[in-house]
Amino acid sequence: MRSIEKLALVSKWTVVMYSETQNENGTYNTRCLYCFMTVATAVETKEELEHVEAQHVCPERALSELLAAKAATEPQTHRD
Ligand SMILES: [Zn+2]
């Protein structure tokens, strides 16, 4: 089994990593390293793999984006 780790640029400021493994029959599995969810198994081509990764709506990433957006809109409290 071969493991390929790559960086997928999802947006200008968010990078999600996927752990890809190849099965003995040549198909691929991919797992999101952000939420540790298996995104797809037994995917036949690299093109399909990229497609399913692009389709993954990551709950962990959504949460961190929500918190980042919330922090950006809240007034900054200055403490001395
Ligand atoms: Zn995820």
Short description:
This protein has 80 residues and is of the alpha+beta class.
Question: Layout of SSEs?
Answer:
Layout: E1 2-9, E2 15-22, E3 28-32, E4 38-43, H1 46-55, H2 59-73
Antiparallel strand pairs: 1-2, 2-3, 3-4
This protein binds zinc ion.
Give a description of the structure:
This protein is an alpha+beta fold and 80 residues long. It has one domain (2-71). It has helices at residues 46-55, 59-73, and strands at residues 2-9, 15-22, 28-32, 38-43. The mean pLDDT is 83. The structure holds zinc ion. Zinc ion is lined by residues 32, 34-35, 37, 56, 58, 60.
Mean pLDDT: 83
- The helix content is 25-40%
Which consecutive residue ranges, at least 5 long each, have pLDDT under 50? none
* Helix segment tally: 2
Our estimate of the beta-strand percent is 25-35%
Bound molecules: zinc ion
Q: Mind summarizing the main beta sheet?
A: 4 strands, antiparallel
Radius of gyration: 17 Å
Structural class estimated from helices and strands: alpha+beta
Q: Summarize the helix and strand pattern as letters.
A: EEEEHH
Tell me how many strands there are: 4
Report how far apart the termini are. 55 Å
| Whole-number tally of structural domains | 1
Query: What general outline do the C-alpha atoms trace?
Result: elongated
For the largest sheet, list the strands in their spatial order.
1-2-3-4
